[in-house]
Structure formats: structure tokens, C-alpha cells
TrEMBL record:
<dbReference type="InterPro" id="IPR029039">
    <property type="entry name" value="Flavoprotein-like_sf"/>
</dbReference>
<keyword id="KW-1133">Transmembrane helix</keyword>
<feature type="transmembrane region" description="Helical">
    <location>
        <begin position="266"/>
        <end position="286"/>
    </location>
</feature>
<protein>
    <recommendedName>
        <fullName>Dialkylrecorsinol condensing enzyme</fullName>
    </recommendedName>
</protein>
<keyword id="KW-0472">Membrane</keyword>
<keyword id="KW-0812">Transmembrane</keyword>
């Protein structure tokens, strides 16, 4: 009797988009693998749609990776799984708080130890710093990152910013007369089923060495070079503001709301100004240091950790 490979999916989603992505990726494997879902549940839920001040007040602890806790996992951490799929979203260029809480938890580390892991991201367009943090947590847990799939909103940077904030604050995802729908494009979600074939192949053979390259060949990770520079500048700014705000108190503390409001008033104008400047500088760098920037692109597409 053939024993089906066992796959665990660990995920957190507010809108349901990430769960839909997971379902489409796994759909071709139905009946061929035994799938267990573990949804991460914060001890204090993050309300959706967000209140604007609450949203911006969530940034410091997200960037500093001091998240609010999650409820105990339902899955047995000692259970055998042939593969763990960690599905998450970046928040403020960092892993979402529930994801960080899972990766920092003793249960999470026990569960991941010795496991093959595929990370599956669904978000706007900047995910590099978040993935670097996740890579470090996985390494510390003794897990083996064998694949990474990234689905992003392919609208321009400023358009996707407008649509995602409209979704976050008003709960409105649908297209308008002037704006496309928010989030990852529907076609990207539906066609993500193509990633099942190399995953199934690796599960069957037990050979994971070529999985990431096979996923890349299917466009599992597409990276525009100028986003590397934009994100590098963005995370430095977020880290400054995270320390500056948190110095006045913990989450939701009234003593820090003045600084949260200051950060909130500067963030969007800063992105609007930085985006075209970074695009120009990246084009210059692409011409002057093409090989160097291309190496950066290849690194971020890989599962390796510097």
C-alpha cells in the first residue's frame, strides 16, 4: 500500500487571499498527498479592515520583530511531515506579526526542526527583507528551505500602494473606474497551480536539490532590480521610525501616538518621492554595475542565506 506524502501548511490570512493562493497551488495534488492546515491565530486578533492609526501603530513591533503572541498550535509538533509550506505576507517589509510569532515560538521551532520547507508569499511587491528574516528563523530552527514562491501585485508601485491601502482601510478590493482590483491579480492566483508539478516530483523522489530552479523556470520568483534599491532604503527608514516610536511606549500607548502620527504623515509622500528617484538610480546602477545588481537578483531568487 502506497503511503501518501504528508504536507503541513502553516498560514495566516486576514482577507483570505493567501488561503486561495495555497489552495490553487495544492489543487493538482488533491488525492496524492495528505494535507494538514494550521492557521495561525493571534491572541489578540488584528481587525480587518484596519483603522488607520492602528495600522501605522503596528509598524514598530512588526519591523523590530517583537510581535504579539499566537494561540497554541493545534498540530502535534512531533508529527512527521514530508514538507511544510509556510505561507505568509510581508508587513512593513518584514514578516507579518503572526508569522514572526510562529517562527519565534518554541512550538514553531520544534515543528520545523529537520523539516523541508517551502515559503509561499502573497503580497504587494516588496518582500526581500521579510524573506531574509524568515530564512534566518528557519536556519535557527534547523529547517531546510528548499523552495520559495512569490506572488505579488504586478501593478506599478504607486498604483498598488493606492489599491492596497484602499483595501486595508475600507475593505474594498474590487476595481473602480480608475483603479484595478487590489491584491495579487486573479490570473496569477489561478495559474499558480503550475507549481504543483515540481513539488510533487520532489515529494515522490525525495530529491529537493533542483526544486527552486524548477520553480524559477516557472516564474515562481520575478524580481525587478529597482525594487532591491527601493526596499533597501525603505527598511532603513522603517527601522529608524520603529525605534523612534517604540522609545515612547508599547503598542497602542497614548504616549507614542504623536510620533505614530508624524510617521504616518511622512510615509506616503516619502514613497511617492522615493519611487521615481530609485527607479532612475537603479537604471544608472544597472548600466554601471550590471553584474553586481544581477548577482543580487539571483541571490534573492534563491533559497540560500548569506
Amino acid at each position: 500500500m502506497n503511503v501518501k506524502p504528508k504536507v503541513l501548511v502553516v498560514y495566516y490570512t486576514q482577507t483570505g487571499q493567501l488561503k486561495r493562493i495555497v489552495d490553487h497551488v495544492l489543487a493538482p495534488l488533491e488525492g496524492k498527498v495528505d494535507v494538514t492546515f494550521e492557521q495561525l491565530v493571534p491572541t489578540e486578533p488584528f481587525a480587518f479592515p484596519w483603522k488607520k492609526q492602528t495600522f501605522y501603530d503596528t509598524m514598530p513591533e512588526t519591523v523590530l520583530q517583537t510581535p504579539r503572541g499566537i494561540q497554541p498550535l493545534k498540530v502535534d509538533v512531533n508529527e512527521h511531515f514530508d514538507l511544510v509550506i509556510l505561507a505568509y505576507q510581508p508587513w512593513f517589509l518584514s514578516p507579518s506579526q503572526p508569522t514572526a510569532a510562529f517562527l519565534q515560538s518554541e512550538q514553531g521551532r520544534q515543528l520545523l526542526k529537520g523539516k523541508k520547507v517551502i515559503t509561499l508569499l502573497g503580497g504587494r511587491n516588496m518582500w526581500l527583507n521579510a524573506q531574509e528574516s524568515v530564512k534566518k528563523y528557519l536556519q535557527q530552527a534547523g529547517a531546510n528551505l528548499v523552495g520559495n514562491i512569490v506572488l505579488v501585485d504586478k501593478s506599478s508601485n504607486l498604483v498598488s500602494l493606492i489599491t492596497v491601502l484602499r483595501w486595508q482601510f475600507k475593505g474594498l478590493k474590487a476595481a473602480t473606474k480608475y483603479l484595478p482590483p487590489a491584491g495579487v491579480q486573479e490570473n496569477e492566483i489561478v495559474t499558480s497551480a503550475r507549481f504543483a508539478a515540481p513539488i510533487a516530483k520532489a515529494l515522490e523522489s525525495g530529491n529537493w536539490n533542483n526544486l527552486q530552479q524548477e520553480l524559477i523556470d516557472l516564474n515562481a520568483v520575478e524580481l525587478i532590480p529597482n525594487l532591491i534599491l527601493l526596499e533597501d532604503r525603505g527598511i532603513k527608514a522603517f527601522r529608524f521610525w520603529a525605534k523612534y516610536i517604540s522609545a515612547k511606549g508599547g503598542p497602542a500607548a497614548s504616549s507614542r501616538q504623536g510620533r505614530v502620527s508624524m510617521y504616518r504623515s511622512l510615509l506616503l509622500p516619502g514613497i511617492v518621492v522615493l519611487s521615481p528617484i530609485t527607479l532612475i538610480s537603479s537604471l544608472i546602477k544597472l548600466n554601471l554595475k550590471k553584474n553586481e545588481l544581477q548577482k543580487e537578483v539571483e541571490y534573492y531568487k534563491s533559497t540560500s542565506l548569506r
